[in-house]
Amino acid sequence: MAKGFLHKKRKLRTQVTILITVTIACALVISSVLFCYKTINELQKSFKEQIFQESRSTISAISTNIDTIDSIYRILISNTSVYNWLESNYADSTNSVTTAKQITSSLIMNNLWEKNYLESVYIYNKRGKQIHVSKNETSDSLITNRRIYNSLTSPSPSLSFGTFNDSNCIYFIKTIYSSNN
Fold it and tell me: With bands split at pLDDT 50, 70 and 90, how would you rate the model's confidence at 181?
């Protein structure tokens, strides 16, 4: 009987030990799962907030640069030489060269030109004549810009932009209406 009592005591001790171990293991597993779930949720929330913040910052920077690009025409039009070239029908190249130099002078002071956000500026008058300033002018760029000008079917006073074929460039187009129209 003493043997049976000891055997039952060991069996009871073993069962209590196993029960406590299983209870602790279950509590650890449950707390680990809850911890992982909470950590994943917090990381996802933080990641989303950071992505939204980066997106807002990028959109703001792009918007500022586009607004600056849009304002360049005002700088150019406020130049008397450029305005006169647009309003007149100059036939000689001396006035066009002077106007191109004035455009260059205006662009040198512009941050977008210095940071190479703008590579070239083409200005067409009402007769389709052009003056331009370009950092990297090639015959292909001249042809491409002429194609873009010719593809402009609906003049708009707002800034419009797009790409052309496989070009890595974004073309900004703004139609400035003449005061004589």
Answer: very low
